């Protein structure tokens, strides 16, 4: 029984006891006068009323807070839906002028090469390069939006097979490179296959990108078994990062390396974080400059 219930029931019990004992007080040898009895009874009634009033006020406050919270949640959901719809619409609408810019720039370079000087060709190639980067940014924003709203289809996943297949799809990037890619024995987990595919694709893609200056590149995908969860990780010996910027690692559009060093939009790890949170897990990382990085993410063993 809760403490609050005891505070209310105690004066009630005392009042009942007084009502029973008062008529018998003289015969039992107690001497409770009528005035004393009424005074004690009045005090108990006052205490009971005060406690009940406080409880009623708390219930009212709680209901009011719940109603306000419900309204705020509905507003937040509406705003989130509108934001995602806006991002989706803008992203698609931006593709049309981008394709036009890239297409006409390509035509000018190909068809007017003889009339354009070297500087003109260089500027047109810069325009094409920037439209390509803008296209990649749009793709990443769409992936981020999809990662947050895509309906999940939870099944038991063969993580070894998933990782091996994803690495195979990077063949155009790994060809000609000296890469030691190792996959440890990974346990099966419950998750959405397409979303988890995106997670490993982003992490392995990052590892390949940031080891591009290493020979040999060392990339390991492994797992640590904890009591209630599996902790997967992707480790590399690449460029790494300074741990004082760890708070920016998973931030949207945050980059810890300049575009001249490594290409990217700063969206990939945000997508990973969003997907893993939807699987009730968490993401974190460790690294050191020029000594590599390791990105961890946890997955509940029971899938919940």
Global geometry: elongated
Provide the structure class: alpha+beta
Sheet with the most strands, sense and barrel status: 5 strands, mixed
List low-pLDDT spans.
none
Structure in words:
This protein is of the alpha+beta class and 304 residues long. The chain is 59% helix and 15% strand. The strands form two sheets. It has a five-stranded mixed beta sheet with strand order 2-4-5-7-6. A hairpin with a 3-residue loop joins strand 4 and strand 5. It is elongated. The two termini are 32 Å apart. The model has no long low-confidence stretch (mean pLDDT 85).
Summarize the structure.
The chain is an alpha+beta fold and 304 residues long. It has helices spanning 3-28, 34-111, 118-149, 159-168, 171-174, 193-210, 268-278, and strands at residues 154-157, 179-183, 189-192, 217-225, 229-236, 283-288, 292-300. Helix content is 59%, strand content 15%.
Question: What would the keywords be for this entry?
Answer:
single chain; 7 helices; 5-stranded mixed beta sheet; 59% helix; two-stranded antiparallel sheet; elongated; alpha+beta; 304 residues; 7 strands
Task: Summarize the helices and strands and which ones pair or pack.
Layout lengths: L2 H26 L5 H78 L6 H32 L4 E4 L1 H10 L2 H4 L4 E5 L5 E4 H18 L6 E9 L3 E8 L31 H11 L4 E6 L3 E9 L4
Parallel strand pairs: 2-4
Antiparallel strand pairs: 1-3, 4-5, 5-7, 6-7
Helix pairs in contact: 1-2, 2-3, 3-7, 4-6, 6-7
């Amino acid at each position: 029984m809760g403490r609050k219930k005891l505070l209310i029931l105690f004066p009630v019990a005392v009042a009942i006891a007084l009502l029973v004992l008062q008529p018998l007080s003289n015969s039992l040898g107690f001497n409770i006068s009528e005035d004393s009895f009424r005074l004690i009874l009045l005090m108990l009634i006052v205490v009971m009323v005060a406690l009940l009033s406080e409880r009623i006020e708390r219930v009212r406050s709680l209901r009011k807070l719940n109603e306000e919270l419900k309204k705020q949640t509905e507003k937040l959901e509406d705003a989130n839906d509108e934001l995602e719809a806006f991002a989706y619409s803008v992203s698609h609408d931006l593709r049309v002028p981008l394709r036009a810019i890239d297409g006409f720039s390509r035509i000018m370079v190909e068809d007017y090469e003889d009339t354009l000087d070297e500087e003109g060709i260089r500027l047109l190639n810069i325009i094409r390069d920037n439209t390509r980067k803008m296209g990649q940014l749009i793709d990443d924003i769409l992936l981020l939006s999809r990662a947050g709203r895509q309906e999940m289809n939870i099944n038991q996943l063969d993580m070894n097979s998933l990782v091996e297949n994803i690495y195979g799809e990077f063949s155009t990037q790994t060809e000609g490179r000296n890469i030691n890619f190792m996959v440890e024995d990974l346990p099966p987990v419950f998750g959405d296959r397409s979303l988890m595919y995106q997670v490993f694709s982003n992490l392995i893609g990052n590892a390949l990108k940031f080891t591009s200056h290493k020979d040999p590149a060392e990339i390991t995908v492994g797992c640590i078994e904890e009591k209630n969860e599996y902790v997967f990780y992707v480790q590399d010996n690449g460029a790494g990062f300074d741990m004082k910027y760890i708070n920016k690692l998973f931030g949207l559009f945050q980059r810890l390396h300049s575009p001249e060093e490594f290409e990217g939009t700063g969206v990939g790890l945000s997508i990973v974080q969003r997907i893993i949170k939807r699987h009730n897990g968490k993401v974190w990382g460790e690294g050191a400059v020029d000594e590599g990085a390791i990105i961890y993410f946890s997955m509940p063993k029971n899938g919940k």
